[in-house]
Design goal:
The chain has 108 residues and is of the alpha+beta class. The protein contains 3 helices and 6 strands, in the order βββββαβαα.
Amino acid sequence: MKHLISHIRMWSGEVLFREKQPATHFYLVLSGKIVVLDRSGRIIIRFYEADQMFGLPEVLAGADWKHTTIAYGKTEITSFPASVVFDRMENMPQNHQKFLDQMAQLSI
């Protein structure tokens, strides 16, 4: 499973994902900053810094990204494929599965 997890180095302004692309991975920021842009691409509506994870609700819901995200400055992230969660869900206790279902609702 470890081979599915990627370490990504990004430069300022580099796009991580674009609005309307399928959410197939969730992310952990290791250093730097990821910014979420409004639909015009001009206004920062949210940002994620070191030790913050994002994208899990969208992945769980099988949603498309609602916004475009870019690196702000030199940024390093870890990318986790959806399979990291989905492959383990079958063996999770029922209350854990319910929690993940609730997390998925956060993206809708």
